[in-house]
Prior knowledge:
The longest helix is centred in the last third of the chain and has 28 residues, at 242-269. The chain folds into two domains: 3-210, P-loop containing nucleotide triphosphate hydrolases (Rossmann fold, 3-Layer(aba) Sandwich); 243-374, Zinc Finger, Delta Prime, domain 3 (Up-down Bundle), CATH 1.20.272. The mean pLDDT is 86. Helix 7 (166-177) links the parallel strand 5 (154-159) and strand 6 (183-189). Helix content is 58%, strand content 8%. With 379 residues, it is an alpha/beta fold. It binds zinc ion. Zinc ion binds next to helix 3.
Amino acid sequence: xxxxxxxxxxxxxxxxxxxxxxxxxxxxxxxxxxxxxxxxxxxxxxxxxxxxxxxxxxxxxxxxxxxxxxxxxxxxxxxxxxxxxxxxxxxxxxxxxxxxxxxxxxxxxxxxxxxxxxxxxxxxxxxxxxxxxxxxxxxxxxxxxxxxxxxxxxxxxxxxxxxxxxxxxxxxxxxxxxxxxxxxxxxxxxxxxxxxxxxxxxxxxxxxxxxxxxxxxxxxxxxxxxxxxxxxxxxxxxxxxxxxxxxxxxxxxxxxxxxxxxxxxxxxxxxxxxxxxxxxxxxxxxxxxxxxxxxxxxxxxxxxxxxxxxxxxxxxxxxxxxxxxxxxxxxxxxxxxxxxxxxxxxxxxxxxxxxxxxxxxxxxxxxxxxxxxxxxxxx
Length: 379
Ligand SMILES: [Zn+2]
């Protein structure tokens, strides 16, 4: 994350940059914001700037050795601490840590503006109580006993310290009281009022407000091609929360595709050719991008169904009613059928990209899919 990736909030960026340039970085800072504020991205961008080897006036260079690692969240002098639900089942703690760290990096890359719920959904821990455990605080102490590897500073970024186990919080407090040299703590909270006063008194506050409507509207327009009344409607709904705004835009599109997909599969399964022809017309009328999206969405669903069949639902991305649909789909189809369907969808995508007739491609694909779904799948 770089400052340029975050819309607006210029005065905060300037202040942070100045503290680095004037060599006055506070050793413990609390990035506080309401739910939906971009305080985590801000702390991440600040971290990138601190380590950058070729700092520009307004941002990290994005090119140097340190930046390239920070932009992938693999800089050896950065430690991330974040809440986790106690996921039972994996007894091998080292492997679990390595896996979850991989998920965390993936989450930051794919959902740079994601919130705590998005994170829980991402690694499959919805509805479970997250916590920064006592063991975690031991890891923190361990990490801090090492000198920086590559950089002048070590950064410890603690996301949502409000979820710290009391024992972990006490450990952190001790460290904040007598911070190791060359170490910078960036605490990031969306529940400022739940933090212990002792933590507040030991940290310098960086307040990150929600985005002003006009900043959000411009961002949606410039980065997601959302304009006009749809832009107005979203901006009105989300009150400066960029994550919520992006979810809104995603869900609307995804839900359309999802409904189309399942209706389509039902029509194929039931050999309802009247319905298939009418859907082929709808498909034909859509623009190319939308057509490709429908087929790509179907491929994604097949992947999910295969994951379900393989008993790997935990790493699935879908949730809610879509998950139930996937379950039904995977219960109905064998793995080899899912393989054949995946191949057929890929072929259709290939023909679409070569500007074949969308109606022909869709109808032909539907007939073949119907055959595979109903029988043992000669295609
Ligand atoms: Zn750099």
